[in-house]
Each structure stands twice: as C-alpha cells, then as structure tokens.
Amino acid sequence: MAVERWSDFQHSPDGNGAETKQPSAIWTTPPTPNQWPDMSHPTQWSHQYYQPRYRMDLPRFNGDDFKSWLSKFEQYLEIENVPEEYKPKVAMFCFEGLALYWHQFYANSVGGMGNLRWQPYLVALKERFGSSEFADPLFDLARLRHTGTVKQFYDEFMASLNVVGLPETMALSIFLANLRDEVLSQLRIHKPKSLVQPAEMSIFIETNL
C-alpha cells in the first residue's frame, strides 16, 4: 500500500525568512482509493499522504494573482487524481503569508481540518482572494487595450482568455480589435487565422515601426 508519512517534507523559505513545508514528491504510481488515509479519522491525514504520479511542485500562493494560481492548482488536482475530501488539505501546502492565515481562520471557523469540504472551501477562497477577478471575466477581456508592447498585451489577453474560454475565432476578433491602429492596419494584410499568428506578426511589425 503506497502511503508515506507526512514527516517526509522538503523545507523552503517563504520569503519572510520562515520555513514552509510541503510533501517531498517522491511520485511513483497513480493512487487508488485504498491508498488514501481513512477520512472518518481526521487525525490520520496529518500522518500520511498519497504517492502522486509525477515530480510536480505544488503552485505557491500568497494571496496575489488568484486566477493564475487556481488554474495551475486545478490542473494539479486533475493530473494527480486527488480525491475531493483531500483538496483543501493539499491546497494548504500551497499557501503562505495571507493565504495561509486565511486557511487557518477558515478551518477554525468550521470546527477544524476534519470538517473542510472542497466546494464550500473553494467558494470562500474565491470570495476572499478572487472576488474582483471573477466578477466579469468576459468584460475584462473585451476592455483590454494595447497600450504597451504587443507581447505585454498578448500575455495579458491570454491570461484573461484562459478564464473566459471563448472559441478561438471570437477571441481572435477581440484581440485584433484591441490592437493599436498602426499595428492592426499592417496586420490585416496577412489575414491571420489563429491567435499565435497575429501575436508573432504584430511583434515583428512593432519592431519595424
């Protein structure tokens, strides 16, 4: 049965000189249901953990850029097939600073770690750190403007698009419409068909203006 002790941690500074702990990630075979500690005994999870499949670092989160962190964390949960009841506890090992303080407060408010449930926990987490970011992601995407470099605009656009999930043809139209006129006028000649093409072409055009 591939279950290790929680005492097997790697230490890393949290930016304030203190040390944080996270699993050492000796990852071998996919977990199966009987490899997980029995959640009917809340103390067991603090002594044992599952063996993940890959050598992947948990994405760190200190309270900033919640959307980016959540996207990475959800991918992690999916790849590692983390059971629903374990998600809040795995999330805790991502947290530092304000995020960790919030987690401790929330856990205490529901009666301890054994009472954490992922969906209510995720709702509370979004309300605390992502309320403004998730208010209207499509509106945020549509109002982006090309004011700096093309690369900066493209990076911001793709970050917002990741949350909205529009079809590429619609996303391409919004991207082109929000480019500066001097770049767009030359880009139209090439009739780009994907988001990658106008980004590369626009950077080239920008350097030759």
From TrEMBL:
Lineage: Eukaryota, Viridiplantae, Streptophyta, Embryophyta, Tracheophyta
Origin superkingdom: Eukaryota
Protein name (record): Retrotransposon gag protein
Record field: compositional bias (Polar residues): 19-40
Spans annotated as Disordered: 1-40
